[in-house]
Design goal:
Length: 133
């Protein structure tokens, strides 16, 4: 008989595995919670209940830690990040304006150069015309 129970993986050493003849009345008079507890113990699920509780406590601790991290992010890091993003945008705008200034400065220098060349050519022509006369 023991081998039969072991073959279906039932724990025959559990005191609640079999209900002895004199204890049936006691079982019938038990409250539903007590019966459930006895069945869970006999089935071996009470062992997993403690593991479940332990896992739930671990999850709760992790959730609390996550909440703390999110709070730190919202209160400290996100404002700093937003400030840095604004500074970056300002810096990029500054660089764009600087490039435009450099381009316009080059254009002005090139215009002054070509204008000066034009004036020099005009003066040379006038000078040559006076020499010819």
């Amino acid at each position: 008989v023991s081998d039969l129970f072991r073959s279906v993986q039932l724990n025959i050493n559990n005191p609640h595995f079999l209900i002895m003849q004199g204890r049936i009345t006691k079982v019938l008079n038990m409250k539903p919670q007590e019966i459930l507890s006895m069945i869970e113990e006999a089935a071996g699920t009470s062992l997993y209940e403690s593991k479940k509780q332990s896992a739930l406590k671990t999850i709760e601790k992790k959730d609390n830690k996550l909440t703390d991290i999110n709070k730190i992010l919202d209160e400290e890091l996100n404002p700093t990040l937003e400030k840095l993003k604004a500074e970056r945008a300002s810096y990029l705008e500054y660089q764009k304006v600087q490039r435009q200034i450099e381009t316009l400065t080059r254009l002005v220098v090139a215009y002054k150069y070509t204008r000066a060349e034009h004036v020099i050519r005009m003066l040379l022509r006038k000078c040559c015309l006076y020499k010819i006369r």
